[in-house]
Q: What sequence folds into this?
C-alpha cells in the first residue's frame, strides 16, 4: 500500500506545530520582493520548512510570486531535490533521464517497485521507504544513476541495489 501526498498533510502538521512556517515562508518571499526569479530559492525554503512541496504550497507560491501554477509545478517536478510527497525513513531516487533510461533505469525502477511494494513517487504506508524518480541527477557519465539515502550510486546494478534495499527494509532474501 502506498500513501500519496495530500493537502491535508500540510494542514495537519501546521495545526500541530501551531506554527510560524507560513510567516517564515512569507518573509523569504518578501526578502526576494516576490520576484518570480526567486522561485527556486522560495521552493527550497518551503521544502526545508515542510519537508515536501504539497499542491497547496505550490499554488500558494505561484499566487504570491504571480507565476502561472504550471510553471511552479514544472520547476518543482523537474529538479530531483524537490519532493512532492512526504518522504520515508529511507529514500531511493532512480534517475529516469535519457542517459539513465537507455541504460535500463526503468527496469531497475520496476524491480524496486515490485520489491518494496511502493509505486514510484510514493512512500510506504508504514513511512519506512520512499521510491522517487528524477529527470537527471547531473551524473549522466555514470548512468544509470540512483541516490540511496543521500549516497549517489553510479552504474547502478539491479542485484546490488535490490540487495541493499532488502537489507535496509529487513526483507528476507
Ligand atoms: S540522465 Fe540520469 S544522471 Fe543524467
A:
Amino acid at each position: 500500500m502506498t500513501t500519496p501526498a495530500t493537502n491535508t498533510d500540510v494542514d495537519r502538521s501546521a495545526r500541530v506545530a501551531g506554527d510560524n512556517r507560513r510567516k517564515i515562508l512569507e518573509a523569504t518571499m518578501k526578502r526576494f520582493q516576490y520576484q518570480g526569479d526567486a522561485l527556486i530559492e522560495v521552493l527550497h525554503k518551503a521544502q526545508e520548512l515542510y519537508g515536501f512541496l504539497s499542491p497547496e504550497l505550490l499554488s500558494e507560491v505561484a499566487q504570491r510570486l504571480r507565476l502561472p501554477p504550471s510553471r511552479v509545478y514544472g520547476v518543482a517536478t523537474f529538479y530531483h531535490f524537490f519532493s512532492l510527497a512526504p518522504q520515508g525513513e529511507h529514500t531511493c531516487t532512480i534517475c529516469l533521464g535519457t542517459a539513465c533510461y537507455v541504460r535500463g533505469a526503468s527496469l531497475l525502477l520496476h524491480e524496486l517497485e515490485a520489491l518494496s511494494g511502493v509505486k514510484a513517487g510514493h512512500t510506504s504506508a508504514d513511512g519506512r521507504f520512499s521510491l522517487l524518480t528524477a529527470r537527471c541527477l547531473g551524473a549522466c557519465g555514470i548512468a544509470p544513476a540512483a541516490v540511496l539515502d543521500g549516497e549517489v550510486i553510479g552504474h547502478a546494478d539491479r542485484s546490488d541495489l535490490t540487495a541493499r534495499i532488502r537489507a535496509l527494509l529487513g526483507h528476507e532474501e
Remarks:
- Helices lie at 7-17, 21-31, 39-50, 55-64, 69-78, 98-101, 105-116, 158-169.
- The first strand starts at residue 2 and ends at 3.
- Strands lie at 2-3, 90-95, 122-124, 129-134, 146-148, 151-153.
